[in-house]
Amino acid sequence: MRRTSSTTNRNRRTVKAAAGLLAGALALSLTACGGDDDKSDTNGSTPTTGSGSALSLPKLDGTSLEVAAVWTGPEQANFKKVLAEFEKRTGAKVTFVPAQDPIINFLGSKIAGGQPPDVAMLPQPGAIKQAVDKKWATPLGDAALAELKKNYSQGWQDIGAVNGKPYGVYYKAANKSLVWYNAQVFENAGASEPKTWDELLTTAQTVYDSGVTPFSIPGADGWPLTDWFENVYLSQAGPEKYDQLAKHEIKWTDPSVKQALTTLAQVWGKKDYVAGGADGALQTQFPNSVTQVFTGGDQPKAAMVYEGDFVQVNIGQTDAKIGTDAKVFPFPKVGSAAPVVSGGDAAVILKDSEGAQALATFLASPDAAEIQAKLGGYLSPNKNVDLAAYPNDVQRKIAQSLVAAGDDFRFDMSDQAPQAFGGTPGKGEWKDLQDFLKNPTDVAGIQKKLESDAAAAYGN
C-alpha cells in the first residue's frame, strides 16, 4: 500500500494560511520578473556551490553505488551532474539506473534478482511505506539524519518517515498548482491571467476567439490528469474533504467528487478547448504537451499547459525564455481559496553501506540541491538552499514560496493512494480519468468506476 497512517495524519495539516501565502506570493510576483529571464541551462558543466566545505563526506575510493529513478531526459542529465559532484568529493563511482514507472514494481524485480540499487528515488510517501513493509529500506544513519533535521521543516521530515522513523530524504519537490502560458498568444488575444475558474474559462474563450486552441493536455499520461482533479477538488471541496478522500474515508461517489468532475468537464468537455480534442490529448505525452505550447511562435498548437514548476525543464527544450515568452500563473481558485498541491521524490537507502549513507547525507544537504537548482527545472524543499542558485526570478519565487509554507502543505492525493489506484499506468485513477477525458459527460459512471477501483486498492 502506498500510504502510511502514522505519518499521513501529520502531513495532512490544514493549509488555508499556507495556500493563501503561496498563491498570494505567486500571483504578485511570478510574471513580474523582467530583469532575470535567463533560460535554464541544461547543458552546462556542473556548477560549483558556495557551501561545499561545510559538508563532511567520507573518502570512498573503490566504492561503487547504483541510484535508481524514473527520471529521463534533462531531468536525468541534471541529476547525473549532482552525482558527479558526489563522485568528485568522495572518490566513489555512482551509476544511474533508469527505472520504469511504477518504480516500486521495478525495484521488486531487481530485488528478486538479487541486484537492488543502493539508493532509489521514490516519488510517493506510500512507496516509502511499501519499501519499509517489505523490509527493503534502511533507516537514515546519524549523519544523514543530522543533515535532514538541519535543512528540512518537520513536515518534510515526517512524509519521509514510517512509524516515526526517518527513511526518506525529499531531495526534489514540486509545486503542482501552476499554469504556464505563451505570453505572445495572450498579448495578441488581449487575454489576462485569471484568478478564478470562471475567469479561466473567459480567458480560454478569448484565446480561442483569437485563433489559438486554449489548452494542451497530456492525456497519454494519467498522472497529470490526477493533478488537474486534485487542484479543482482541493479548492472547491476544501482541505478537510481532500484529506478524507485521500484516505478513502469518503467515497468517490460523494457529491463533492461529482461537483469537481463536472467542473473539470467545463474544460475537458469542450473539444475546441483541447489541442487535438480528446483523441489528440490521449495521444499526447507530458513533454510534448509542454513543448507544443512554446513552439511555433504566436501560433502554437495550444496557449496554456497546466503542470508544476518542473515544466521549465521542457520549456528549456524550446526557444522560449522563461519570464518573457513563457509565463506562469497560480492555478485559479475554484472555491474560496486557490489550491496548492505539492509532490516530491525521496532518496531511500535499499543497501545499507557507508557509501549509500554518505550519498543520502549529500542529497540532504544544500550542496547537492544547489547544483541542480542552477541547472533549472528543479525545486528543493531544503530550507537552506541559497535562492540565488535558481536560474531565474520565476523559479526563485516558486522556491521561496515553498520554503515559506513550512509544514503547511497538501501532498499530491494520488501519491498518497495505494499504488494500484493512484500510481499505475493503465489502471485505477489514471485510467479512469483518461476515460473521463474521452467522455466527460459520464460523471456518474466515472464516479462508480473510481470508487470500485479505490475500494479494491484500499481494501475497504
TrEMBL record:
Belongs to the bacterial solute-binding protein 1 family. Residues 37-57 are annotated as: Disordered. Pfam families: SBP_bac_8. PROSITE patterns: PROKAR_LIPOPROTEIN (PS51257). This is ABC transporter substrate-binding protein. InterPro entries: Bact_solute-bd_prot1 (IPR050490), SBP (IPR006059). Residues 1-34 form the signal peptide. Residues 44-53 have a biased composition (Low complexity).
